[in-house]
Design goal:
Elements: E1 13-17, H1 25-34, E2 39-42, H2 49-66, E3 70-73, H3 76-82, E4 86-89, H4 96-103, E5 108-114, H5 117-126, E6 130-134, H6 150-156, E7 163-166, H7 175-180, E8 184-187, H8 189-192, H9 197-209
Parallel strand pairs: 1-2, 1-8, 2-3, 3-4, 4-5, 5-6, 6-7, 7-8
The protein binds ligand LCLJCK34, 4-methyl-5-hydroxyethylthiazole phosphate (TZP) and magnesium ion.
Length: 216
């Protein structure tokens, strides 16, 4: 992996993505971080700007305590207002150039590439910091997300940026995704809908820790 990557993205592991709104959001996130999540995304598709600002501000503080980058889904202004580490954007969201102009050179800008290596190359050339692929399996969180093949991860691993896999991941189906080339596995429901969030996250992190020869 290139040494030009942001330091925070040089490892491998679990990328936990919130499923709110929920009353116990902060406790839920704290449990995921205690379970070993390496990245945290605040994903809240509601339009309640006041609550979103309050929640993202508190999450930035929780993540800072764990040394985990907070990524905001979709909303560059919210990322800027909260001092988050970065933003995740898809094809319907702002461009990398707009996000970079707002957040600066050190921000993490992650992009969705779905199943497209062509889009991945373009996003890399535009300055993305990681490339997201999926859904890898049908997802109850995003039921209309098309499913892509594991082979895309293997090819994407040659592009020189961290590869993030998302969609329908569970502790039982994620090993093949890691073996195919994913550096990070992004998970919503199998973590945040679990009865024990910390234990559920740990089941994913163990998939990385169990790999011989991998320096975390
Ligand atoms: C890590 C990661 N990968 C993909 C997505 C999906 O982004 P997008 O396609 O913009 O869809 P929404 O999440 O905004 O519904 C993501 N959020 N995170
Ligand atoms: C945001 C997103 N993009 C593709 S699938 C997905 C949802 C992932 O959620 P889950 O881990 O519950 O399948
Ligand atoms: Mg989006």
């Amino acid at each position: 992996m290139s040494t030009l990557l942001p330091t925070q993205l040089r490892g491998k592991g679990v990328y936990a993505i919130t499923d709110g709104p929920r009353d116990d959001l902060f406790a839920a996130v704290e449990a995921a971080l205690a379970g070993g999540a390496r990245l945290l995304q605040y994903r809240d598709k509601t339009t309640d700007a006041e609550r979103r600002l309050q929640e993202a501000t508190e999450l930035a503080s929780i993540c800072a305590r764990y040394g985990v980058p907070l990524i905001i889904n979709d909303d560059v202004a919210l990322a800027k207002a909260t001092g988050a580490a970065g933003v995740h954007v898809g094809f319907q969201d702002v461009s990398i150039a707009e996000a970079r102009a707002a957040l600066g050179p050190d921000a993490i800008i992650g992009v969705s590439c779905y199943g497209s290596l062509e889009r991945a190359r373009q996003m890399r050339d535009e300055g993305a910091d990681y490339l997201g692929f999926g859904a890898m399996y049908p997802s109850t969180t995003k039921p209309h997300a098309p499913v892509t093949t594991h082979d895309v991860l293997t090819q994407a691993a040659q592009l020189g940026l961290p590869v993030v896999a998302i969609g329908g991941l569970t502790p039982d189906n994620t090993k093949t995704v890691i073996d195919a080339g994913a550096d990070y596995v992004a998970v919503v429901s199998a973590i945040f809908a679990a009865p024990d969030i910390q234990a559920a996250t740990r089941r994913f992190t163990d998939l990385f820790d169990a790999r011989p020869g991998i320096i975390q």
